[in-house]
Amino acid sequence: MDKATPKADIYKANLDRAAPLLAKIKDEGIGHFIDGKVVPAISGATFETTSPIDGAVLATVARGNAEDIDRAATAASLAFKSWRDMAPAMRRKLLHRLADAIEANADDIAVLECVDTGQAYRFMAKAALRAAENFRFFADKCTEARDGQSTPSDEHWNISTRVPIGPVGVITPWNTPFMLSTWKIAPALAAGCTVVHKPAEWSPITAQWLAKLAKEAGIPDGVLNTVHGFGEDAGKALTQHPAIKAIGFVGESSTGSAIMAQGAPTLKRVHFELGGKNPVIVFDDADLDRALDAVVFMIYSLNGERCTSSSRLLVQQSIAETFTAKLAARVRALKVGHPLDPATEIGPLIHERHLAKVCSYADIARQDGAIIAVGGKPYAGPGGGHYVEPTLVTGANQTMRVAQEEVFGPFLTVIPFRDETDAIEIANDVQYGLTGYVWTSDMGRALRVADALEAGMIWLNSENVRHLPTPFGGMKASGIGRDGGDYSFDFYMETKHVSLARGTHKIQRLGV
Hints:
The chain has 512 residues and is α/β, with parallel strands linked by helices. The protein has two domains: 11-274 and 478-496, Aldehyde Dehydrogenase, Chain A, domain 1 (3-Layer(aba) Sandwich); 279-460, Aldehyde Dehydrogenase, Chain A, domain 2. It is built from 15 helices and 21 strands. The strands form six sheets. Strands 13-14-15-12-11-17-18 form a seven-stranded mixed β-sheet, with helices on both faces. Strands 8-7-6-9-10-20 form a six-stranded mixed β-sheet, with helices on both faces.
């Protein structure tokens, strides 16, 4: 369907597309995918996954434990050598086939992701295509993954190369699960690693699709394995397994700390993309119309359930009242509704526990003396699911919890600032350091602020626009390491130095 198709027709088509897919998934259930086969948990344990739209049970899911992780890690270990040694051009070909398969199934993946996570179709329609793009990008880098440097000295010819680290564990979140899993898995496979994937238990459906599509594309058995379950058993076992050489994780900062501790006895390499309390700083000389669009988009898109959301608006005092009034009008106009409706801008939150968490911060804001200018309570959405009103908090200062803690929902806190120095001080006064956004027409100031902000990624006069070759990651409690381009290979591969003597240097003689 093209842009001219009425939204009501798209909504109905989405419902019609989702119905048989969901019926099949509910009938078959969701098992682990290990060594090329769908298998139940060894213990026989299961759990139910439900839709945030109406609480309906979507499927019964295998609940993995240490035995299932060991089975998957063994499969990944046995498959590693042949995958590592496969000609890079062949790996590239297989990963392109997988990208083709993702594109061919993008509409099905999108509607399933909406029903499983509550994310709006307008965003999920593009997420599967971005997942295919992730595989294409890293597929084309297969042939350069082992590239190194030549650093000759007077007596030696020194070269470096990279080799895949081995089987790796990938633990992914529930907010945009299909796309974010490919963000980790694609570079790992391109590097020559094998993977054990542990998806978030709140959104398990599309992980099974990825594993099946990989097999259909010709990815050898054991190269990509999926084990479902909870963090305290399957996740913990994955981080502790001696055959798993590294863990890539996207999620909460506290969970990242636990993973570091669990992986310490086996000296796991870790890459963490963690939480954020990201500032968007709007100076009075900015293009205020564009800034307003970006402010709204970067906190209220994807239900605000994104690590890079700009959840703190720092606005210069001279324009704060006018800018905030325009912002409040936009927030009130946001459309909350069924995620399969293309008119919907905010769908239901992922889980009833998360809904309760997000709503609790409205009470916290009031207790601390802030004002709930818009929203702040559950929304009576279709199906009676986990809907929340998009929320705007004003009258806040940097000491308040709503200015310090990650809410991870459609929840924006406004904090006025005096000048450049004040803006930088407020922006950096949090434990996190993932992203920052700066709006000003003064490019000198833009660069000064970008240099001073304690964050891994800065966008100047822009919302978050991802470019795959660039480094993605945070500072402080927002993470360790970088994804993207060659930076991903630095994590999934070991650098090896080889020194070849010219045969002319003097060797010390002992015992002569």
